[in-house]
Amino acid sequence: MIFYISLFMAFLYFKIARVYKKEEKTNTNFWVQNFLVAIAVVALFAYGFTHESWYVVLTVSFLFFIFVSLIVSAVQLGIFINGKPFIKISHLYKSLAPLGMLISFADVYLWGI
User: Fold this and answer.
1) φ, ψ (nearest 5 deg) of residue 26
2) Which of 44, 69, 72, 73 is 20 to 30 Å from the Cα of 91, by its Cα?
3) What is the pLDDT of residue 62?
4) In terms of Cα–Cα distance, which of 33, 31, 40 is closest to 48?
């Protein structure tokens, strides 16, 4: 279960990072953080392909990719309650660092390091 949750978070992380790169000015810290999370995601996929069936990993990855794209697009368009935005895109930008740490910690837990 931790594998699937961290796989979903990995797709969410990189979708938010992609939107951040398109809309905001990036710096060196952003690129270093993305590089470290990318290493964790490669290790996560390695874990998935060694412990799960390859077609399950690819199918779930495809579904998570579509689901995350829909979620982030909905936030970009705006989710309003009583005329006030419920979730802003800036909230997602602020969640990049904790999300990256959760992915890395889940990866370390799965591999048993």
Assistant:
1) -95, 160
2) 44
3) 96
4) 40
